[in-house]
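Illustration 12: ROK family protein.
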Amino acid sequence: MTLTRTTKLERGRGALGPALALVHTGRAPTRAVLTAELGVTRATAGAVAAELASLGLITVDSRPGAAVGAQGRPSHRLAVDPEGPVVLAAQVHADGFRAALVGLGGRIVATAPGCMTVHADPAQVLGEVVESGAGLLRETGRRCVGAGLAVPSAVAEPEGTALNPLHLAWEAGAPVRDIFTRCLADARVPGPSPDAPATGYTANDVNLAALAEHRHGAGRGAEHLLVVGTGHRGVGGALVLNGRLHTGSSGLALEVGHLTVDPAGRPCHCGSRGCLDVETDPLAFLEAAGRTPGPEVSLLEQSWELIRTEYDTDPRVRTAVELLIDRLGLGLAGLVNILNPDRIVLAGLHRALVEKDGERLRAVIADSSLWGRSGGVPVLACTLDHNSLVGAAELAWQPLLDDPLLLLGG
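Figure caption equivalent — predicted structure in token form:
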């Protein structure tokens, strides 16, 4: 019997989602690699790739080719379709918000910042950030298939409530997922079906940064990835185990910002003193460097600029960097002892610290942890500039990665 493309696809329909995920994360650059990774026949892999292309999700080179020096049969190259659908991604932080359109592969298609004082009513700021994203959709004319939101708070599952938005004026327990979904409906942001509004997905910003770095950035290939970072205020952490975020029983795992690194240090919002949250964030850095924060740009941008322009010339700035590295190293050493990760990725201001003096940071971790003395844990700077936004997009892409044909086949 001669197998038709439909018959081959029926045999491989269950592979559509895994195949799209492989191309999405760059792990299947050719049809030959896709065939091997899926464990199917070449014919089935071809039918699966052709179906994903017909859905407008990937491209398949019409002429097979091989890299210079490669052996074996040339293979068709696969890539995400640059003109394919996008998702709306949004991030709210202490100094405002940012909206973006993100394509498959973690590629930011368009972005719009919204610097402002975040209103105490989450519905107001989420309405503004969604309208900003809807404006990007109108300007670009791109098809939207979902929406994701990153917030600086632990987000309880499955309710989608922000339990501790410490650096925002929101009430604890704000139903951010429901509010976000309502705002999407009000702005007529579509989901997979153009006739129905998008469903909103919400999670903690550092959790989403970790997911993005694991799929598209410095965390690729790690089995036990620890991500720690400070954005505009505070410090967060996340753990990716075997490709999945570890969020605990209800979404509250890895509140690493409340590890004590200086018992006599600053009072923390949690009621303790000297936590990473208040000892290694941008405000702590600016104070240690003898600078008074200004209102013109965010604390994070002020810190980055100070390190970039004055680290080599101002001893106070170098001393502040060393102080934060020592505090951060103590916190990371404790996490290494508890979690035993195979890689650490640092984001936000912490990215600048490891880039400026990674040797000092790794030495502090090694001297203060049991596992560090046995060979050390790789400590890397993140490689995605807007990793929380890319991670928010991953939330919205996940239903499509689970079953592309179910969402788009009709």
